[in-house]
Design goal:
Alpha-Beta Plaits; 453 residues; 18 strands; eight-stranded mixed β-sheet; Aminopeptidase; alpha+beta; 25% strand
């Protein structure tokens, strides 16, 4: 092991020395901010590079100084959770923050906000954050709990907005980038789909967006790690309701009626077998039923019964095939039982399909960070609507930390995270911009510090 003690150096000296050490293949093992750093020889193995460490530990005016603002933004937004497209407080906060930085803003999709850092070229790259919260009662003991009973930012959207505000803040005083950089703050991700409305309003065309990126906090991934994969990463989803209408009769005379529960159970069973027997087993899909009911009394045949569920798959063709089989099963079963079956299917979001070229570029761009190829997940995201229009990359930022108790799942009233992870989201965006030769915020930050000294 080779170690180098760095104590009393100015940030400029540390950066210069860091460049040399990186060229030698040295990597950080256990850094202490601006006091000392222990480096170990690891050959060509990629670990957390000094460049990324310095990114986090510049004395003033740099990325670490951003952490307090990230915390302030996150905690303020966390206290004002709003739903769907009805986001007056959130919209006002985002708009004011961006305009204070010097950006002109545009309201889109009723309560969304768009701003841009104009570039040499009108061709643009976009970054998106969702804004809405959930109908969830907060159960955390944090000092910045939701101020609205029964509502909570339980899916991390407060963190998503804070990261994008952080990127906008870094870019506000930076030199003109080679391409325009667009910030999209989007409502109604949790439903009914604000991304679809933004695409319909022509925002991507108006701003000449060529590619779009997004990050979601993810408690199944180690805090600070970035997860992604090429191709299908998140599922297409839809919801369905089945209502069966029969004829009531006394249980002692079942021949006088048509049992809605009996017919419902048969439809239920056939639906459960559908993805196992009628769909290509090599194409992941599921049909989950989570609610059902029916009947009035124990000795009366039910005249009405119902159940509700969700459909998930990574293939739009498979999704359409599942729907076709569901309609056929419901109709034929109802006929055989002498009842009427009503099947309503509501299509929500397409699958999130990450552009392979953008994924490969991102792995290269984030080589100094902890990046991982993750497995596809059956969660759904309306970011997919952007990807239907232009190439897009959706990434997961880990927030899981057993030591601090940040292990609760998304949509839980206990969900929480350490705001320090948000720095890694901003880092990821900055690395992507630098790798695509749009603007090097690392270099720009150094230049701004030199000018201030």
């Amino acid at each position: 092991m080779q170690s180098i003690l760095m104590d009393g150096f100015t940030p400029k000296c540390i950066r210069a020395l860091g460049s040399c050490l990186i060229g030698m293949g040295l990597q950080i093992k256990d850094p202490q901010p601006l006091k000392c750093a222990l480096f170990t020889w690891r050959g060509k193995r990629k670990a957390v590079s000094l460049c990324s460490w310095l990114f986090l530990h510049i004395e003033s005016g740099g990325f670490m100084a951003l952490l307090e603002q990230l915390k302030t933004d996150r905690q303020t937004l966390h206290q004002i959770p709003e739903l769907g497209f009805e986001l007056p407080k959130t919209h006002a906060y985002i708009k004011k923050r961006l305009e204070t930085m010097g950006y002109e803003t545009q309201t889109v999709a009723k309560s969304g906000v768009v701003a841009k850092k104009a570039g040499v070229s009108d061709q643009a790259i976009a970054f998106r954050a969702d804004m809405d919260a959930l109908d969830v009662e907060e159960m955390t003991a944090s000092s910045f709990k939701s101020q609205t009973q029964g509502r909570m930012h339980a899916c991390g959207h407060d963190g998503h907005m804070s990261m994008l505000l952080g990127l906008a803040q870094l870019l506000a005083d930076a030199p003109t980038p080679k391409k325009t950089i667009v910030f999209i703050f989007q409502p109604a991700e949790e439903g009914p789909g604000g991304a679809r409305e933004i695409v319909k309003e022509g925002v991507l065309n108006t701003y000449h967006v060529e590619a779009i990126y997004g990050i979601h906090l993810y408690p199944s991934l180690k805090a600070g790690a970035i997860g992604m994969r090429a191709g299908a990463m998140m599922a297409q989803n839809g919801e369905f309701d089945v209502h069966v209408h029969g004829k009531s009769a006394h249980g002692a005379a079942p021949h006088d009626g048509h049992d809605a529960i009996n017919a419902m159970v048969s439809i239920y069973g056939s639906f459960q077998d559908l993805t196992n027997k009628m769909i290509d087993p090599l194409v992941p899909s599921l049909l989950a039923i989570g609610k059902m009911g029916g009947g009035e009394m124990r000795n009366i045949l039910a005249k009405h019964a119902y159940f509700e569920g969700t459909i998930r798959t990574f293939s739009e063709a498979t999704y359409a095939n599942i729907k076709k089989h569901m309609h056929r099963i419901a109709a034929h079963t109802a006929e055989s039982y002498g009842v009427k079956a009503e099947l309503a299917i509501r299509d929500f979001y397409p699958p999130v399909i990450n552009d392979a070229a953008l994924v490969n570029q991102a792995f290269d761009a984030l080589a100094s960070m902890d990046t991982r190829t993750i497995e596809p997940m059956m969660l759904a995201e309306d970011f997919a609507f952007y990807q239907q229009a232009i190439p897009g990359l959706f990434m997961m930022l880990g927030v899981r930390n057993e030591k601090t108790g940040h292990t609760h799942p998304l949509h839980s009233g206990h969900f929480n995270f350490d705001e320090k992870v948000l720095i890694n989201g901003v880092r990821a965006y900055a690395h992507i911009l630098a790798h695509n030769d749009i603007i090097d915020l690392f270099k720009s930050t150094d230049e701004l510090q030199s000018e201030s000294r």
